[in-house]
Amino acid sequence: xxxxxxxxxxxxxxxxxxxxxxxxxxxxxxxxxxxxxxxxxxxxxxxxxxxxxxxxxxxxxxxxxxxxxxxxxxxxxxxxxxxxxxxxxxxxxxxxxxxxxxxxxxxxxxxxxxxxxxxxxxxxxxxxxxxxxxxxxxxxxxxxxxxxxxxxxxxxxxxxxxxxxxxxxxxxxxxxxxxxxxxxxxxxxxxxxxxxxxxxxxxxxxxxxxxxxxxxxxxxxxxxxxxxxxxxxxxxxxxxxxxxxx
Length: 246
Ligand SMILES: [Zn+2]
Ligand SMILES: [Zn+2]
Fold this sequence. Notes:
Elements: E1 5-9, H1 21-30, E2 35-38, H2 52-55, E3 63-64, E4 67-76, H3 88-91, E5 96-100, H4 111-123, E6 129-130, H5 142-152, E7 155-159, H6 162-165, H7 169-183, E8 187-190, H8 203-211, H9 224-237
Parallel strand pairs: 1-2, 2-4, 4-5, 5-6, 6-7, 7-8
Antiparallel strand pairs: 3-4
Bound molecules: zinc ion (ZN) (2 copies).
């Protein structure tokens, strides 16, 4: 299967990433990627952009150098009751919203808490994707979380960086992929690139999807049509008319 969208990329705005949105788009094009989501870290992470960054993303063209550019965020999950670090005012303007656990923003706790937190996130209408769910530092009850994604029609991420920066994720990621297949939950693919060279690099993701024998129809990033359909679905869910973002 061919992946044409990368829904998790960082720019220099994240503070600890090193490429501009132009550089990312050019590299995406060179790597055969047709769509990227600009998902810089939410404001609670040190060095991440102030919230105004997310209010001004509309000035970036929807397409750069032949690549469709989504305006998004990787929110920080701040507690186990569903608190994140941007409010609805900003989130309703965005195209695709990721949320994830980072130990610099929330202290790891017990599996029950990680699971409850993830389910709160998945039930939040503004949040589309639970990102890098395989992190063993924030071990979840995989079946419960995937079932919640099914119930709320949300997306689970398979993250290419998980094997590199979140050691021990591999086993969890495979189990998550298998569970998504079992329950018919859509997955997305994120390079989590922090420099342009990583955009659209899906070596780990491709291996994992193959191992899990994931049906192509569940991988939302294999066609632009599926991605655009999802964006319409999101806008309907949050009560924004289709085709009008702002
Ligand atoms: Zn992350
Ligand atoms: Zn990230």
